């Protein structure tokens, strides 16, 4: 049986990292932060970062977990709180995009790709519904009458052939 992978985990999905996994990660890193290389403090003061971020992983609906699974110690890093914040939100000093930016970008690209895919399928298979597009009202050019002028710039009526000099 083939497992179907969705693009991302459902909203609100997050499993708590067990203490045994946390200890395994800290021991593997020799109690050093992966970002700055300095010694980590107490386990309560240490933050654990999923690499790649959970929302950037594929979702396995059958296993009800991400791929790779959320609490796999090989994909978790121990960091200081400020080092973790730099990775999560990005850093203007280093011009790096954070996980939050990448997640938003990935969702935007996935949405536009899905819309494009549906449009292409609708062209080939008429049974596939085309994505609903909001109807925009047609823009109407503003109309205003322009004054009729003669050759020398004076107003004239339609029946007149020439300007004021044509009289007489």
Q: Kindly name the structural category.
A: alpha+beta
- Amino- and carboxy-terminal Cα gap: 100 Å
Low-confidence stretches: 1-5
| Secondary structure tally, helices | 3
The backbone outline, from C-alpha atoms, is elongated
How would you state the average pLDDT, rounded? Answer: 80
Quick one: biggest sheet? 3 strands, antiparallel
Q: Give the tally of structural domains.
A: 1
The helix-strand sequence is EHEEEEHH
Could you characterize the architecture of this molecule?
Residues 135-151 have a biased composition (Basic residues). Residues 120-168 are annotated as: Disordered. The protein has one domain. Helices cover 27% and strands 10% of the residues. It has helices at 19-28, 81-89, 99-124, and strands at 5-6, 47-50, 58-60, 65-67, 76-79. Strand 3 (58-60) and strand 4 form a beta hairpin. It is elongated and about 95 Å long.
What is the fold's blueprint, element by element?
Elements: E1 5-6, H1 19-28, E2 47-50, E3 58-60, E4 65-67, E5 76-79, H2 81-89, H3 99-124
Antiparallel strand pairs: 1-3, 2-5, 3-4
Biased composition (Basic residues): 135-151
Organism: Bradyrhizobium elkanii
Protein name: HNH endonuclease
Give a short synopsis of this structure.
The protein has one domain.
Please describe the structure with a list of short key phrases separated by commas or semicolons.
168 residues, alpha+beta, 3-stranded antiparallel beta sheet, two-stranded antiparallel sheet, 5 strands, 27% helix, elongated, disordered N terminus, HNH endonuclease
């Amino acid at each position: 049986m083939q497992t179907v992978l969705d693009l991302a985990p459902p909203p609100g999905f997050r499993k708590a990292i067990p203490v045994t996994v946390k200890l395994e990660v800290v021991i593997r890193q020799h109690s050093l932060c992966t970002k700055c290389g300095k010694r980590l403090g107490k386990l309560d003061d240490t933050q654990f970062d999923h690499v790649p971020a959970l929302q950037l992983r594929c979702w396995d609906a059958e296993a009800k977990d991400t791929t790779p699974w959320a609490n796999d110690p090989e994909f978790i890093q121990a960091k200081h709180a400020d080092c973790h914040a730099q990775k999560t939100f990005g850093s203007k000093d280093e011009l790096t995009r954070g996980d939050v930016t990448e997640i938003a970008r990935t969702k935007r690209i996935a949405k536009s790709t899905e819309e494009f895919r549906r449009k292409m399928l609708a062209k080939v298979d008429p049974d596939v519904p085309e994505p609903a597009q909001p109807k925009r009202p047609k823009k109407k050019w503003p109309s205003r009458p322009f004054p009729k002028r003669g050759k020398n710039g004076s107003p004239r009526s339609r029946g007149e052939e020439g300007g004021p000099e044509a009289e007489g």
